[in-house]
Structure formats: C-alpha cells, structure tokens
Amino acid sequence: MRKKIIAANWKMHMTVSEAEAFLHTFLHEIGDEAGAEVVIVPPFTALAKVSEILGRGQAAKLGAQNMHAEKSGAFTGEISAPMLRELYVRYVVLGHSERRTIFGETDEVVNRKVRAALDAALKPIVCIGETLEQRDAGQVEAVLHSQIEKGLHGLNTKELSDAVIAYEPVWAIGTGRTASPQQAQEAHAFIRKTLSEMWDAATADKVRIQYGGSVKPQNAAELMREPDIDGALVGGASLDPRGFAEIVKAAAHH
Length: 254
Ligand code: 13P
What we know:
Layout: E1 5-9, H1 16-30, E2 37-41, H2 44-54, E3 61-64, H3 81-86, E4 91-94, H4 97-103, H5 107-119, E5 123-128, H6 132-136, H7 140-151, H8 157-162, E6 164-167, H9 181-198, H10 201-206, E7 208-212, H11 217-224, E8 231-234, H12 241-252
Parallel strand pairs: 1-2, 1-8, 2-3, 3-4, 4-5, 5-6, 6-7, 7-8
C-alpha cells in the first residue's frame, strides 16, 4: 500500500515571516492527521526556519526546490545536497518544468542531480510531463518514456523505490486548467507500466507518483481516488494554509 504524499511547492513565494505564519495555521488545521505524508518545500531562504518549526515531529517533512549536482565548488548562487542535509531536508524537487524551460535543465542535468541526491540520502521528487503542443501531437507517452529513461538512468531498484515521480503536465501548471482525473490516471498508469518494464513490477508498484498542475481543495479528492495517483505536488494552492490542509485531508481519506 503506497502512502499518499502531498507536497507544497512554494516556488519563489514566502518570506521567513510568512512561512512562520503559514505553519502556525497549517499545523493547527491538520492536527495529528497521519493518513498522508506532507512535505513543505519552501524557497532556500526559509528552509532553516521551517526546519526549526517542524523539528523532529512527523506532521510534515522538509523539501528543497532544487540543488546542484556537485557537493561544493565554484558555482556561485548554487546550493548542494550536503547543505540541504544539514538542515534536515529529506526531499528535493528535481527537473521541475520551470527549471527545464526557464533555466535550461536537460534530462542529463536532472539525472546528475538525482544521482547526487540519492548519494546524499535525499529523496528526489522527479518532475516529468508534456507540453500542450506535445499532447496535441500525440506525443505524451513518448515524452514521458524519454524523460523517465534519461532522468532516472542508473538507479537500482532500492533507489527507484525511494524516488517520487511527479507527473506535471506543463499545460496544467499555474493555468487553472487541471488534467481530468481520467487524463491523469492514464498518464500515471503509463508511467508505472514504463517503470515496470525498465525495472520490475514489484518496484514499480512501490513508487509513488504525484500529480501536479492546478490541484486545489475542490479537485483534490477526485484526483486522489484514482488508483495510480499517490499524492499531489501543489503550487499556487499550497500558499494558503487552510486550503492546503484541506488538500492533505482529501488525500488522507482516499
Ligand atoms: P500550480 O499548482 O500552481 O498549478 O503549480 C503546480 C506545480 O508546478 C507544482 O510543482
């Protein structure tokens, strides 16, 4: 049985004081809701404060939005896995479509980061997904297959089962246009089938596949009911502590 995993990708939002205020309300709202794993993914500047507030409690874990593949060096403006580990970061989002399109990250770069994350005992949340043009051209499966093959190249079965995959159709990110539960389930089932062909069925069955793209309290429950949707990577709607708590509760009950 895969435990649902709901992550709040705050992107470039939330100052330290805003993050504190968010957590104050959010932690109160979710109480001891343990049905889903929650990951808060703040900007780097708020990691230390969020880490301190979450402490060793199990209410929510800490994630980072990106990292560099090298451990240290002359890479001005970058952050490494050991730096994240020191702050008790457990997850790192890699290959988000904004990183790919705005910052030019290729599957090869994503793969190097995935390797570095796993070597540092950080669990990668690897984002994949097609653009609207690719969907209209009937290329969804080809795109997902290629992103999985290149992005997750070289992982052993244990490493794969520690990884989380986030299916984020680019056309659904920040647009208010969510994939229908059927569209999302179809893509998730394809991703799981691909993992089972590239690794094996037992491992593919353990991997959690999140859906991301305009997830809101209003549509979370119907998405979470689908058999291959194991959680959500939430952008805009994760900035509101009450709304995000509702999404967590919807996941915990499906
Ligand atoms: P939105 O929820 O704002 O569409 O963003 C999705 C996303 O990119 C999460 O990583």
